[in-house]
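Structure first, sequence second, as always.
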């Protein structure tokens, strides 16, 4: 029986319930419009994987405390700010099945809300002298921005090779989960080696997480027979596609690139690309790489003593690559 989020949360159930109030308090404002919007943000929260990584890491290494709650709030504040800004940049009107902030309150307000959340994160750290936490999370946000810009730059020329792909997802996605694990460790220990270890474990999990995310675009071939190909329509060079371009004939490669450049809204031609990816072994290759990162994280975790927190942490790792959405 696969672990559910509810069963994984068991050791930190009370902390996760208390976290919602901490997170809401960290966003409080005397401006009624801001309070209305931040209330909306809290109510449409997702799976809460990030705070779970923070609390489980802290539980594995020490005693969960107020600093741990601040670490989880800081991660969520700065991450939520980047999501609000991303929706403006992408002109996206929906996130996780809900209307985005810019869809309900327009771009100007959304940008200002993102700025506000960033400032609240900074103040939460400074007011409690949590400079180590601020350093870790600020570094993650910097790398996320650099990863987005690197992807935009490379997407224009479609010259993303496998190493550049890893560089992009390490910065765009993995660095945030790395930040969760590092801040969780920093909230209970002043052991730099342990913080670095947990950061690396989080990064490896994040790499696998993003590869899994990219695989969703192709797994629909097997599950429903109706490939979506959203990444191809958006000209995103993901690992299954990169592998395929390296292992097909030059004629097929030219055709695939031409479809991505010029016919990426033609569903029939996008479906043709997805079939090439499947038949070339691109999906299997990406799945193998995803498992390599997971196994690396699990191997590193062997250095951590056994506990219920560690058991749940391992279950959460498996959840990230077995999730259906």
């Amino acid at each position: 029986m696969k672990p559910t989020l509810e069963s994984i949360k068991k050791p930190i159930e009370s902390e996760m319930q208390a976290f919602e109030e901490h997170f809401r308090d960290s966003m409080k404002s005397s401006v009624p419009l801001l309070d209305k919007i931040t209330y909306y943000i809290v109510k449409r929260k997702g799976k809460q994987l990030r705070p779970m990584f923070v609390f489980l890491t802290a539980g594995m290494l020490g005693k969960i405390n107020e600093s741990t709650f601040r670490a989880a709030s800081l991660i969520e504040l700065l991450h939520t700010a980047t999501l609000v800004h991303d929706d403006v940049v992408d002109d996206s009107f929906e996130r996780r099945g809900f209307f985005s902030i810019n869809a309900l309150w327009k771009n100007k307000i959304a940008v200002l809300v993102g700025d506000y959340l960033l400032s609240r994160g900074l103040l939460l750290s400074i007011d409690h002298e949590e400079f180590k936490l601020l350093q870790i999370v600020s570094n993650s946000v910097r790398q996320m921005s650099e990863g987005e810009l690197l992807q935009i730059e490379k997407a224009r020329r479609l010259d993303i090779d496998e190493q550049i792909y890893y560089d992009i997802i390490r910065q765009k996605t993995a660095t945030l989960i790395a930040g969760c694990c590092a801040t969780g460790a920093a909230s209970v220990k002043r052991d730099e080696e342990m913080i670095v270890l947990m950061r690396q474990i989080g990064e490896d999990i994040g790499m696998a997480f993003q590869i899994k995310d990219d695989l969703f675009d192709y797994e629909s071939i097997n599950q429903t027979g109706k490939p979506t190909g959203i990444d191809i329509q958006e000209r995103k060079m993901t690992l299954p596609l990169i592998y395929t371009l390296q292992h097909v004939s030059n004629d097929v490669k030219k055709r695939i690139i031409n479809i991505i450049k010029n016919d990426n809204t033609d569903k029939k031609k996008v479906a043709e690309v997805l079939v090439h990816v499947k038949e070339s072994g691109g999906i299997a290759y990406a799945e193998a790489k995803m498992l390599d990162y997971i196994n690396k994280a699990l191997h590193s975790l062997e250095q951590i003593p056994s506990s219920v927190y560690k058991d749940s942490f391992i279950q959460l790792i498996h959840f990230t690559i077995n999730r259906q959405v």
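Margin note: Residues 221-227 have pLDDT under 50 and may be disordered.
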